[in-house]
Every structure is written in structure tokens, then in C-alpha cells.
């Protein structure tokens, strides 16, 4: 029963198609749960029920997890935003959020930090 609950939890994660889909923090938390599963369990993420949206409190909780993980795991600060920047994504913040996502990509895929779960990390080979 517990394994089935974990699978259902992953299946309930909403898709991220646009930058505004990051406002609830679920997608970014899911990245940490996948890449750094020893530091964040999927059970810790506030996930909406299918068809529902998260409350502001749950969204703040998710982004606070992201902020704490960024502060604890990465050698330099990459979370240069505040939680409300994600909650109320404004057009002028789009570039800052994209830069944050690029930093995450670099630290999780290109040059993975030590805490990245090596079983889920598949190195990308780029030939120039």
C-alpha cells in the first residue's frame, strides 16, 4: 500500500508547461526529490489533488523548501529571489527565474553537486 501511495504521489504532480506553472513550487520541489532524494522526499512536497490548486500556504511551504535546499546544497548562492517572486510571477521576473532554472540545471545535470543521486543522474554528452 505504501509503494502504491508513492507512485500515486508522483502521478499527481502537475505538468509544467509555462513559467507561471512554477508559482506553486511543486515542479521545482519535484526536481529536488528526483535529483537529491536523500535531501527531499516526495512525501514532503505539498501536491494539489487532481483538478485543485494549492493554497498560498502550501505554495509558500514548497518554495521555502526550495530556498532551504539551495542554501544548504549548493556551493554558491543561486536563489536570488524571494518566495513572493514565484507566487506572483510578473513578466519582469521571467528572466531572473529563467536564470535560476539554468543554475539548477548546471548544478544538477552539467556539473552535478555531490548530493545528486547518481542513479537518477544521466550525464549529457555534448560534442562540439
Structurally, the number of domains stands at 1
- Largest sheet, if any? none
Give me the count of strands.
Answer: 0
- The helix content is 40-55%
Organism: Orchesella cincta
Pfam family, one: CAMSAP_CH
GO biological process, one term: cytoplasmic microtubule organization
Domain CASAMP second calponin-homology: 13-89
Features:
128 residues; mainly alpha; globular
Plain-language structure description:
With 128 residues, the chain is mainly α. Helices cover 47% and strands 0% of the residues. The protein contains five helices and no strands. Helix 2 runs parallel beside helix 3. It is globular and about 35 Å long. The termini are far apart.
List the helices and strands and how they pair.
Layout: H1 2-11, H2 26-35, H3 56-73, H4 83-87, H5 94-110
How would you summarize what this structure contains?
With 128 residues, the chain is mainly alpha-helical. The protein is built from 5 helices and no strands. The chain is globular, with a radius of gyration of 15 Å.
